[in-house]
Amino acid sequence: MSFFTTIxxxxxxxxxxxxxxxxxxxxxxxxxxxxKYSLPSESSEVFCKYTHGERxxxxxxxxxxxxAPFKKRAKARIFPGNICRLLYxxxxxxxxxxxxxxxxxxxxxVTKTSIVEKKLLLPCSAWSVLLQSCSGLxxxxxxxxxxLEIHWL
Length: 153
What we know:
Layout: H1 2-13, E1 17-25, E2 31-38, E3 46-52, E4 55-59, E5 74-79, E6 83-88, E7 95-104, E8 110-117, H2 126-133, H3 135-152
Antiparallel strand pairs: 1-2, 2-6, 3-4, 3-7, 5-6, 7-8
């Protein structure tokens, strides 16, 4: 029984998953969204797509067709380091929902959804992306100056 449990746990641990979904603005009206994912060691070809409900912004899978209104506005690409990036032009005012879908071979896709509010978007820079993705670093950066001040008292 314990051998069977170990095999099941190993199977779940080695499946693909979406680790993080981060976003920022390139220009005032353009969105960049990065979907970081992990893969099993023996993975086949990876496809990623971004959706809003049933509407397809873009995909790296050539067998799927992009929703017509997004053909000149959205582009998805896979980058080294297991990142699927969406560039989306003319982000509308208000809130928009984006879902990142990662699919490996014949396995079921894994997804992560985020709601983006245009007026709250930070501009893309190494600093803003780092702070979005690393709250521990933010805490460290905020705590360190306080520790220095206490030491000087």
